């Protein structure tokens, strides 16, 4: 499992001209599910995501997590994060989980994050999503 976590001033997901998820500030999280990922992986990364200190304190140091700054979390499924890009000029997706398993695990991940924090929005799994955001910093981390 891979999480591309971006500190955002705002973020939203639109599907068929309808906003399905939006936050004013916090984390935009692109979620890639890979073959072999487990529910234990979902729990470990849910815990890490919410505790990850990527927001500035009064001295400007990254010492605060999303909960401490009362930020939102926007979770968006992104199967291309699981791409194999080591060879050639075209990504391979043999490392990505099959769609049914990826959807189950993504929903499990969302549930685990929501169980710990109530300011969680999502995109729509497997939809053609238009994601807009303003990266704050820019600050971007890959959590695995």
Automatic annotation (TrEMBL):
One of its GO terms (molecular function) is tRNA binding. It is found in: Cytoplasm. One of its GO terms (biological process) is D-amino acid catabolic process. CDD domains: Dtyr_deacylase. Keywords: Cytoplasm, Hydrolase, RNA-binding, tRNA-binding. GO terms for cellular component: cytoplasm. It is an enzyme of class 3 (hydrolase). A motif (Gly-cisPro motif, important for rejection of L-amino acids) lies at residues 137-138. Its main location: cytoplasm. Its EC number is 3.1.1.96, 3.1.1.-. InterPro entries: Daa-tRNA_deacyls_DTD (IPR003732), DTD-like_sf (IPR023509). The keyword Lyase does not apply. Coiled coil: none annotated. It catalyses: a D-aminoacyl-tRNA + H2O = a tRNA + a D-alpha-amino acid + H(+); glycyl-tRNA(Ala) + H2O = tRNA(Ala) + glycine + H(+). The keyword RNA-binding applies. SUPFAM superfamilies: DTD-like (SSF69500). Homodimer. PANTHER family: D-AMINOACYL-TRNA DEACYLASE 1, D-TYROSYL-TRNA TYR DEACYLASE. Belongs to the DTD family. An aminoacyl-tRNA editing enzyme that deacylates mischarged D-aminoacyl-tRNAs. Also deacylates mischarged glycyl-tRNA(Ala), protecting cells against glycine mischarging by AlaRS. Acts via tRNA-based rather than protein-based catalysis; rejects L-amino acids rather than detecting D-amino acids in the active site. By recycling D-aminoacyl-tRNA to D-amino acids and free tRNA molecules, this enzyme counteracts the toxicity associated with the formation of D-aminoacyl-tRNA entities in vivo and helps enforce protein L-homochirality. A Gly-cisPro motif from one monomer fits into the active site of the other monomer to allow specific chiral rejection of L-amino acids. This is D-aminoacyl-tRNA deacylase. It comes from Marinomonas hwangdonensis. The lineage of its organism: Bacteria, Pseudomonadati, Pseudomonadota, Gammaproteobacteria, Oceanospirillales. The gene is dtd.
